[in-house]
Amino acid sequence: MEEGSVVANLASDLGLDLKTLSERNMRLDVIANRKYLNVNKETGDLYIVERIDREYLCALKTYTSCFLKIEAILENPQRIFFIEVEVMDINDNTPHFRRDANELDISEATQAGERFSVNNAVDPDVGVNSVKTYHLSTSEHFDIEIQTGRDGSKFADLILKKSLDREKQAVHNLILTAVDGGTPSRTGTASITVRVLDTNDNAPQFDNEHYRIKIIENSPIGSLVLHLNATDLDDGSNAELAYMYSLYTSEMTQNTFNLNPHTGEITVKGVLNYEDFKLYDMEVIATDKGSPALSGQCKVTVSVEDMNDNHPEISIKSFQSPVKENIDVDTVIAVVSVSDKDSGDNGVVDISIPENMPFKLRESSDNYFELVVSEPLDREKVPEYDITFTVIDRGSPPLSDNETMTLELLDVNDNVPKFPQSFYTIRVMENNAPGALLDSLTAYDPDLHENQYLVYFIIEREIANTSMSMLFSINPENGKLNALKSFDYEIEKEFLFHIEARDSGVPPLSSNVTVHIIIVDQNDNTPVIVSPWRAHGSVVEEKIPRSTDKGCLVSKVIAIDGDSVLNSRITYQFLQVTDTTLFSLDQYNGEIRTMRMFSYRDPRLQRLVIVAKDNGEPALSATVTIKLSTVETAVKAYSDMTEVPLEYDIFSDLNLYLVIGLGSVSFLLLITILVTIVLKCQKPKSSKAAPPCRNSVISERNSTIADSTLVSNDAYWYSLFLAETRKGKLVVRQPAPKGSRYIVSSLPRSTGLTETSDSAPSTLQIHYG
C-alpha cells in the first residue's frame, strides 16, 4: 500500500472515545520491526508511514503468514493494547532459478526415458503467488516432468524421450520456464545446454567411392596425384583417421605411389612410363582410433596419360648397295620400317628423305616403306649418295630421329673418252730432233677401272705415199706425241691427221681429235742475190756514163730468201763504198742511185760492196761487189721512161743542140734496154714511173706484202716464181684489174717462155720443157 494509506481505526477497533482521544496521547511501539505504521492521535487512524515488503519483512519465516506486532500506548489513564497487523502477500516477485544456465553432458548412447535433474525455480511470494509449474522449450528429444516437494515447492526433471545422435546434433539448447500462480502470473527462465557425448558409432567415409585420376607420364617424383579426404562424424579420437593401402593393392602400385597415412595425400614415388604401364588400381582404407576402431575404404584408379617422350625409331630391313649406275627407275633399293612407342598423335610417324635426290619413298604396308629409284643415276656426276631417313612424330613438341645410309654406285662403260680440245694446233720448229716430244694429248674418261683405261692410236693417213705413222708416233698409254723425223719448213709446212682414244670397257667406246702440225720456220737459209747476176764468187762490173744526173738509178740489188716471210725480209746496206757522197742505197728495195753528178775529180772506178741481210735471229747475209766504171759515151740504160730535159741556169744554142742530140740517142737506147732487161733479168715492167731522170731505170716498191714492209716487187715475184715452179706448175703474170698488182695463174708444164711488150700491161709467160 502507499504511504499514508489508512490500515484501520484503532479508536473504533479499541472502543475509544474520539473526543478524549487527543488528550490521551496515543502512540505506537513496534516490537522487533521497523516502524512501518503510525497512528493519528486525533482520529485514531492506523496508517502506513513506510512501504511494507512482505518478502523482506518475513524473509526468515517459513510459514506463509506475516504479521507486524505493535503496541498502542494510551495515557490518562495509561493503557497498553497489543495489536497484530497481517501483511497480505501480492504477486510482486518473479520466479527465478538459482542458476541461470544449466549444462548437461549426455552420451549419445543413453537410452530414451532417462531422467536428468535440473535446478528448480524459487519465488519469494507465497501461496498461490509462488511457483506453480514449469515449461520446456520445444524439443523432439527432451521433455520435463514436474515434481512437488514436501514443502509444497515445485521442481522439474529433464526426461530423454528420444535417443540422441551426436553426429546429427552435438548440442541441444533448451529453455526452462518457471510460472507462478499469481494474477497476472510471472515467469522466470533458465537455459539448459545439453552436450551430446560421442561414441564411436560412425565409420569413416570418403568423398567418393571411386576416384579416377589422370596423370602425365614422367611426372616428377613427389608430384601430388590426389589428396584423399575421408570424414568421420564422430568426435575426438573417434574421428582421428589413419590411411593405408589395402591388401588388394599390388606391390608395384605401392612402389609407384606413396600414401601419406596422416594426410591421405597420394604422391608419385617411382617413374611413370606410359609405355610400360598405363593404369594403376589401388584401394585405400581410412581407420579411426575409436574403440572398437571403424574403417572406410575407396578405390583409386590412376590413368597415366601419354606424353611425347619417345623418339620415333627407324629400322632398315633391307638395303642393296652397291648398285649399278644404270639401274632401272622404280627399282627398290631399301625397305625400312618406322615405329613410335607413344600413342595417339604422339605415335603417328612421318618419314622423309631429302628432296634433291633421285629417290622416293613408297609405302608398302603399315609403317613399312620402300626406297625406290625415281630418276636415272649417273655415277660420274654423283658416285655415292648419303641418304638420310628422317622420322618425325606428330606430338607437341614433335620429336624426330634420323639414320643415314650410303648408297654406292658401280660404274658402267657409258662415257666416251673426251679430249680437252676438239682441235689441237701444235707448232713444231723445223730442224727438230727425231723423237722430240711434240705434245701430250691426254683424254679423260670419267668411268672407273677398265672403263677408264685409255689406249691412243694415230688414224692412218697417207700423204704423198707417206704414212702418218712414219712421221709421228703416239704413246698408247699416255698420249704423248713424238716426231719420228726432222722436218724442213721449206719442204713441209703442215700436217693434218686424227688421233683416237679408246677405253677398255665392254663394249669399248672411243673418240678422236684432229691434230694440226704446223712447221715453224727457222732462219736456216742464207739470202741469195739473184740480181745483178754473177758467177759464184765473181765481181759484177757495170759501166755508167759520167754524165749521169743526180738521183738516177745506177743498179738494183735483188736478194731472195727461202725462209718464211719474217725471216726472209731483206734489207740492204753498203758494206764498202769508194765515195760515200756519190751513191745512195735504198735499204728496202736495193736500188743504188746517184746522190750527185760526177765531177772530174771523181775516180773512174767505183767499188761498191753491198750486203743483203735477212730478218732472222741470228741474221744471215750475202754480199755482192759491184765495180762501176764511168765512161764518156752513152751505154745501155736500165730505165724505159722518157727523158726529161735538164734545166740549166745558162741556156745557149750549143746547149740546145746537145740536149736534142742526147735525147734522141737516149730514146733509141730505151727500147733496146727494155728488151735486154726483160730477157736478162726476167723482171716485169714497173707500173709506176720514177721521177724523170735521163738514162735511169725505174723500179717500184711492192705495197702488198702482208706486213707492209717495202720489199722489191721483183724479189717478191721471183720468190713466188721459185715456190710455184717447185710444185711443177706454170706461173703466168697477167694484166691485173685497176688497183691490183698481179694475177698469178698456175698452169701445167708446157713449152717455152715468151714476153710481150706493148703500151698495154705486159704478160710474162714461163714454160718448162
UniProtKB/TrEMBL annotation:
The keyword Transcription regulation does not apply. It comes from the Eukaryota. One of its GO terms (molecular function) is calcium ion binding. PROSITE patterns: CADHERIN_1 (PS00232), CADHERIN_2 (PS50268). The keyword Transcription does not apply. Its main location: membrane. Residues 32-97, 98-206, 207-314, 315-419, 420-529, 544-647 form the Cadherin domain. CDD domains: Cadherin_repeat. One of its GO terms (biological process) is homophilic cell adhesion via plasma membrane adhesion molecules. The chain crosses the membrane at residues 656-679. It is a single-pass type I membrane protein. Keywords: Calcium, Cell adhesion, Cell membrane, Glycoprotein, Membrane, Repeat, Signal, Transmembrane, Transmembrane helix. GO terms for cellular component: plasma membrane. It is found in: Cell membrane. Potential calcium-dependent cell-adhesion protein. May be involved in the establishment and maintenance of specific neuronal connections in the brain. This is Protocadherin alpha-C2. It comes from Merluccius polli.
